[in-house]
Amino acid sequence: MSAAEGPLVVGVDTSTQSTKALVVDASTGQVVASGQAAHTVTSGAGRESDPRQWWDALCEALRQCGDAAHEAAAVSIGGQQHGLVTLDAHGEPVRPALLWNDVRSAPQARRLVEELGGPDAWAERTGSVPGASFTVSKWAWLAEHEPDAVRATRAVRLPHDYLTERLTGLGTTDRGDVSGTGWWASATESYDEETLAHVGLDPALLPRVVRPGEVAGTVRDGHDLPFSKGALVAPGTGDNAAAALGLGLRPGTPVLSLGTSGTVYAVSKRRPTDPTGTVAGFADAHGDWLPLACTLNCTLAVDRVAALLGLDREAVEPGTSVTLLPYLDGERTPNLPHASGLLHGLRHDTTAGQVLQAAYDGAVHSLLGALDLVLDEDADRSAPLLLIGGGARGTAWQETVRRLSGRPVQIPEAKELVALGAAAQAAGLLTGEDPAAVARRWNTTEGRVLDAVERDEEALSRIAGVLSDASPLLERGADSL
């Protein structure tokens, strides 16, 4: 047996690029073992992955965890949001999953908003105005472009649902992840019959929404995972809701996450309804709400700029009037799904390091622009920003967020917060605690605080001006010129 104080639990993060598994001591939060395996994702406007890769990656990640995984009493899956998984009558994928950053469904998103009452009606009913990333838009795209796939579909799942179902044999989801589909009404906390009928999706194809704290099922026989039969399976949730659990967030604490996508969010007691579409009115995983704004271009986009310049990602230089909008994959915030990257203000004396710093500035500007909309009137706007995600360890990211926000920045030492949040959810099944309280007991936010510096108003104003002036060009996109 492992030298642990309490029972062991497994928390999983199945993200865009890889699946990570942590075996955690439910009593102390100590990570006993860990594993990770990569996925492949198609490139271009269409971003797809074979869901069976996620299962294979989970098996490999757990294999790396060794005997500790077999000792686990409970498991929970946190996963990338929005992805459309279509399964046939045998539970096999009809086609590769359409991922959150697949922007081909932008026209369908616009039509759905127009056809079902406009932005205000959508925000009031579902909490969000759907964009290309939302699952409902992807289903509408699939129905238009691949009707044979739609006819062959006997179950519709999100990425975390798919893995949970392979563990339990039961089709389930949770309120946190399902709130990002566009077919779940946050006002009633139920599937929205009008939306489903409009897009031709039979509600019988959808999973049951498991309540917070409810057991989704138990690990079944006949699989090749190193769990004991009968281990409890938690509802799981979307990656941002899982990270919020992993941080033990209390209402009003702001989070800025730097990963493949960039997000800002905070837990709120109030149901969000933003008709501009900037803030998605997600539910969280334990009964409250998680207003969130997301950008498509964050660490990967900046790293790509660094590679084009032949620079290390930390080789930034200050003192520049150059502006770079790194919308390499189109953009969600602001809503410019067909945009490409834009560079403005280049001079003879502009250095490569200054261009790289401009890429950081452009990425962070998009996130901070949505922060005030995410935070409600009860939020403490002087509280430190919790900086998480892969980019949070980078000095250039830290200093850019600090300079452009004008706020203190706290960098939790805990890593893999999505997997830790899933582990806290699993632990809550065993102890009866709120998973966020479990994470607070684990002290997951502990970490150094960078003091506030004066906000760089000149840079913020310059970027905003370029964005405004270039909007007609960005809305058309490079492919339409």
From TrEMBL:
Which PANTHER family does the record associate with it?
SUGAR KINASE, XYLULOSE KINASE
Recorded catalytic activity of this chain's protein: D-xylulose + ATP = D-xylulose 5-phosphate + ADP + H(+)
Q: Name one Pfam family in it.
A: FGGY_N
Instruction: Please state what the protein is called.
Output: Xylulose kinase
- EC class, as a word, reads transferase
Record-annotated active site: D239
The record's EC number reads 2.7.1.17
The UniProt annotation places substrate binding at: Q81, H82
The record's listing under Gene3D superfamilies reads: 3.30.420.40
A Gene Ontology BP annotation from the UniProt entry: xylulose catabolic process
Write out the function statement from the record: Catalyzes the phosphorylation of D-xylulose to D-xylulose 5-phosphate.
User: Can you tell me which family this protein belongs to?
Assistant: Belongs to the FGGY kinase family.
Output the InterPro entries linked to this UniProt entry: ATPase_NBD (IPR043129), Carb_kinase_FGGY (IPR000577), Carb_kinase_FGGY_CS (IPR018483), FGGY_C (IPR018485), FGGY_Carb_Kinase (IPR050406), FGGY_N (IPR018484), Xylulokinase (IPR006000)
Annotated GO MF terms: ATP binding; D-xylulokinase activity
User: Where does the Carbohydrate kinase FGGY C-terminal domain start and stop, copy by copy?
Assistant: 312-427
- Supply the alphabetized keyword list: ATP-binding, Carbohydrate metabolism, Kinase, Nucleotide-binding, Transferase, Xylose metabolism
Domain Carbohydrate kinase FGGY N-terminal positions: 9-246
Q: Name the site position(s) for Important for activity.
A: D13
